[in-house]
Specification:
Distance between the termini: 38 Å
Strand content: 35-45%
Organism: Thamnidium elegans
Structural class: alpha+beta
Bound molecules: coenzyme A
Radius of gyration: 16 Å
Pfam families: Acetyltransf_1 (PF00583)
GO biological process, one term: UDP-N-acetylglucosamine biosynthetic process
Shape: globular
Oligomer: single chain
GO molecular function: N-acetyltransferase activity
Protein name: N-acetyltransferase domain-containing protein
Largest sheet: 7 strands, mixed
Number of helices: 4
CATH architecture: 3-Layer(aba) Sandwich
Length: about 160
Protein backbone atom coordinates (compact mmCIF):
# COMPACT_ATOMS: atom_id res chain seq x y z
CA UNK A 1 0.00 0.00 0.00
CA UNK A 2 1.38 3.40 -0.95
CA UNK A 3 1.48 6.25 1.50
CA UNK A 4 0.40 9.69 0.32
CA UNK A 5 1.40 12.95 2.01
CA UNK A 6 1.64 16.69 1.27
CA UNK A 7 -1.64 17.07 -0.60
CA UNK A 8 -1.95 20.18 -2.74
CA UNK A 9 -4.82 21.16 -5.02
CA UNK A 10 -3.96 22.90 -8.27
CA UNK A 11 -6.38 24.79 -10.53
CA UNK A 12 -5.08 23.84 -13.98
CA UNK A 13 -4.27 26.62 -16.45
CA UNK A 14 -2.99 24.80 -19.54
CA UNK A 15 -4.01 21.95 -21.84
CA UNK A 16 -0.64 20.30 -21.10
CA UNK A 17 -1.45 20.14 -17.37
CA UNK A 18 -4.77 18.47 -18.19
CA UNK A 19 -2.88 15.25 -18.94
CA UNK A 20 -2.59 14.79 -15.16
CA UNK A 21 -6.36 15.01 -14.76
CA UNK A 22 -6.85 12.52 -17.60
CA UNK A 23 -4.41 10.04 -16.02
CA UNK A 24 -6.56 9.93 -12.90
CA UNK A 25 -9.83 9.80 -14.84
CA UNK A 26 -8.67 6.93 -17.02
CA UNK A 27 -7.37 4.97 -13.99
CA UNK A 28 -10.65 5.41 -12.10
CA UNK A 29 -13.44 5.58 -14.68
CA UNK A 30 -12.00 3.41 -17.48
CA UNK A 31 -9.68 0.89 -15.76
CA UNK A 32 -11.53 0.56 -12.44
CA UNK A 33 -15.18 1.34 -13.20
CA UNK A 34 -15.12 0.05 -16.82
CA UNK A 35 -16.67 3.05 -18.54
CA UNK A 36 -15.56 3.28 -22.17
CA UNK A 37 -12.65 5.57 -23.05
CA UNK A 38 -14.93 7.25 -25.62
CA UNK A 39 -17.50 8.23 -22.98
CA UNK A 40 -14.73 9.42 -20.65
CA UNK A 41 -13.14 11.73 -23.21
CA UNK A 42 -16.23 13.79 -23.99
CA UNK A 43 -16.44 17.18 -25.71
CA UNK A 44 -16.67 19.34 -22.55
CA UNK A 45 -13.02 19.40 -21.48
CA UNK A 46 -11.99 22.44 -23.54
CA UNK A 47 -14.69 24.69 -22.07
CA UNK A 48 -14.25 23.42 -18.50
CA UNK A 49 -12.16 24.31 -15.48
CA UNK A 50 -10.07 21.46 -14.05
CA UNK A 51 -8.36 20.83 -10.73
CA UNK A 52 -5.85 18.13 -9.80
CA UNK A 53 -4.77 16.95 -6.35
CA UNK A 54 -1.05 16.19 -6.16
CA UNK A 55 0.68 14.22 -3.41
CA UNK A 56 4.08 12.89 -2.49
CA UNK A 57 3.87 9.10 -2.74
CA UNK A 58 6.02 6.82 -0.59
CA UNK A 59 6.37 3.42 -2.20
CA UNK A 60 6.81 0.13 -0.35
CA UNK A 61 10.54 0.08 -1.17
CA UNK A 62 10.93 3.44 0.60
CA UNK A 63 11.36 5.54 -2.54
CA UNK A 64 9.38 8.78 -2.71
CA UNK A 65 7.78 10.23 -5.84
CA UNK A 66 6.97 13.94 -5.62
CA UNK A 67 3.91 15.61 -7.12
CA UNK A 68 1.95 12.52 -8.16
CA UNK A 69 -1.56 13.28 -9.53
CA UNK A 70 -4.07 11.39 -7.36
CA UNK A 71 -7.39 13.19 -7.77
CA UNK A 72 -9.32 15.46 -10.11
CA UNK A 73 -12.57 17.38 -10.57
CA UNK A 74 -14.11 19.34 -13.47
CA UNK A 75 -16.44 22.36 -13.72
CA UNK A 76 -18.59 22.83 -16.84
CA UNK A 77 -20.00 26.38 -16.94
CA UNK A 78 -23.71 26.56 -17.82
CA UNK A 79 -25.98 29.60 -18.36
CA UNK A 80 -27.39 31.69 -15.49
CA UNK A 81 -24.58 31.15 -12.98
CA UNK A 82 -24.89 27.37 -12.95
CA UNK A 83 -21.76 25.21 -12.54
CA UNK A 84 -21.86 21.49 -13.30
CA UNK A 85 -19.53 19.39 -11.15
CA UNK A 86 -18.21 16.18 -12.69
CA UNK A 87 -15.33 13.87 -13.60
CA UNK A 88 -14.59 13.75 -9.87
CA UNK A 89 -12.23 10.94 -8.88
CA UNK A 90 -9.48 9.93 -6.46
CA UNK A 91 -7.19 6.96 -7.15
CA UNK A 92 -8.40 3.88 -5.28
CA UNK A 93 -5.34 3.59 -3.01
CA UNK A 94 -5.54 7.29 -2.07
CA UNK A 95 -9.18 7.27 -0.94
CA UNK A 96 -10.33 8.07 2.57
CA UNK A 97 -7.61 10.71 3.06
CA UNK A 98 -10.01 13.65 2.55
CA UNK A 99 -8.48 14.42 -0.85
CA UNK A 100 -11.94 14.26 -2.45
CA UNK A 101 -13.28 16.64 0.15
CA UNK A 102 -10.45 19.11 -0.53
CA UNK A 103 -11.16 18.99 -4.27
CA UNK A 104 -14.85 19.76 -3.73
CA UNK A 105 -14.00 22.60 -1.32
CA UNK A 106 -11.67 24.17 -3.93
CA UNK A 107 -14.44 23.81 -6.51
CA UNK A 108 -17.03 25.51 -4.27
CA UNK A 109 -14.61 28.31 -3.36
CA UNK A 110 -13.93 28.98 -7.05
CA UNK A 111 -17.69 29.10 -7.75
CA UNK A 112 -18.21 31.64 -4.96
CA UNK A 113 -15.39 33.84 -6.23
CA UNK A 114 -16.53 33.68 -9.87
CA UNK A 115 -20.21 34.59 -9.71
CA UNK A 116 -21.67 31.10 -9.90
CA UNK A 117 -24.81 30.87 -7.78
CA UNK A 118 -25.69 27.18 -8.10
CA UNK A 119 -23.86 23.84 -8.46
CA UNK A 120 -25.49 20.75 -9.94
CA UNK A 121 -24.04 17.26 -10.24
CA UNK A 122 -25.09 13.79 -11.30
CA UNK A 123 -24.04 11.51 -8.45
CA UNK A 124 -23.44 7.83 -8.97
CA UNK A 125 -26.22 6.58 -6.72
CA UNK A 126 -23.93 4.85 -4.16
CA UNK A 127 -21.83 8.06 -3.82
CA UNK A 128 -24.72 10.33 -2.80
CA UNK A 129 -23.73 10.09 0.90
CA UNK A 130 -20.39 11.71 0.12
CA UNK A 131 -22.02 14.68 -1.60
CA UNK A 132 -24.67 15.01 1.12
CA UNK A 133 -21.84 15.38 3.67
CA UNK A 134 -20.47 18.22 1.55
CA UNK A 135 -23.85 20.04 1.60
CA UNK A 136 -25.44 18.91 -1.69
CA UNK A 137 -29.12 18.05 -1.66
CA UNK A 138 -31.50 15.85 -3.61
CA UNK A 139 -34.54 18.00 -4.34
CA UNK A 140 -38.05 16.66 -3.78
CA UNK A 141 -39.33 17.38 -7.29
CA UNK A 142 -36.14 16.03 -8.89
CA UNK A 143 -35.46 12.80 -7.04
CA UNK A 144 -35.68 10.29 -9.89
CA UNK A 145 -32.82 7.82 -10.29
CA UNK A 146 -31.71 7.80 -13.95
CA UNK A 147 -29.30 5.83 -16.06
CA UNK A 148 -26.12 7.53 -17.25
CA UNK A 149 -23.57 5.50 -19.21
CA UNK A 150 -25.11 2.30 -17.83
CA UNK A 151 -25.10 3.10 -14.09
CA UNK A 152 -27.76 4.63 -11.80
CA UNK A 153 -27.35 8.32 -10.98
CA UNK A 154 -29.26 10.98 -9.07
CA UNK A 155 -29.17 14.78 -9.44
CA UNK A 156 -27.92 16.82 -6.46
CA UNK A 157 -27.81 20.58 -5.95
CA UNK A 158 -26.12 23.30 -3.93
CA UNK A 159 -27.94 26.62 -4.27
CA UNK A 160 -27.45 30.19 -3.04
CA UNK A 161 -23.68 29.97 -2.87
C1 LIG B 1 -16.02 9.71 -4.43
C2 LIG B 1 -14.51 9.86 -4.19
C3 LIG B 1 -13.95 10.90 -5.16
C4 LIG B 1 -14.30 10.33 -2.74
O1 LIG B 1 -12.92 10.62 -2.56
P1 LIG B 1 -12.14 10.37 -1.18
O2 LIG B 1 -10.89 11.17 -1.25
O3 LIG B 1 -12.02 8.93 -0.91
O4 LIG B 1 -13.18 10.98 -0.12
P2 LIG B 1 -12.83 11.67 1.26
O5 LIG B 1 -11.68 10.96 1.91
O6 LIG B 1 -12.66 13.15 1.03
O7 LIG B 1 -14.18 11.39 2.07
C5 LIG B 1 -14.73 12.37 2.90
C6 LIG B 1 -15.88 11.80 3.68
O8 LIG B 1 -16.85 11.23 2.80
C7 LIG B 1 -17.07 9.86 3.14
N1 LIG B 1 -17.38 9.09 1.94
C8 LIG B 1 -16.54 8.76 0.91
N2 LIG B 1 -17.22 8.04 -0.01
C9 LIG B 1 -18.49 7.92 0.45
C10 LIG B 1 -19.68 7.30 -0.04
N3 LIG B 1 -19.70 6.64 -1.20
N4 LIG B 1 -20.81 7.38 0.71
C11 LIG B 1 -20.82 8.06 1.88
N5 LIG B 1 -19.74 8.68 2.41
C12 LIG B 1 -18.60 8.60 1.69
C13 LIG B 1 -15.81 9.44 3.83
O9 LIG B 1 -16.04 8.31 4.63
C14 LIG B 1 -15.50 10.68 4.63
O10 LIG B 1 -16.41 10.75 5.72
P3 LIG B 1 -16.03 11.24 7.21
O11 LIG B 1 -15.81 12.72 7.09
O12 LIG B 1 -17.24 10.91 8.01
O13 LIG B 1 -14.80 10.49 7.59
C15 LIG B 1 -13.77 8.50 -4.37
O14 LIG B 1 -14.39 7.54 -3.56
C16 LIG B 1 -13.74 8.00 -5.82
O15 LIG B 1 -12.92 8.42 -6.62
N6 LIG B 1 -14.65 7.06 -6.16
C17 LIG B 1 -14.65 6.48 -7.51
C18 LIG B 1 -15.07 7.50 -8.56
C19 LIG B 1 -16.43 8.05 -8.29
O16 LIG B 1 -17.33 7.32 -7.94
N7 LIG B 1 -16.58 9.39 -8.49
C20 LIG B 1 -17.81 10.06 -8.24
C21 LIG B 1 -18.74 9.87 -9.36
S1 LIG B 1 -20.32 10.61 -8.99
Amino acid sequence: MSKYTNVSIKHLQTVEERKDALKVRVAVFVDEQKYSLESELDSHDDVSQHWVAYCDKENQDGTVEKGVPVGTIRLIPKPDGLAKLGRFAVLSDARGLYIGQQLVKSFIQYCKENSFNTIVLHSQYPRRGFYAKMGFMIEENDDAIFDEDGTPHIRMWMRSL
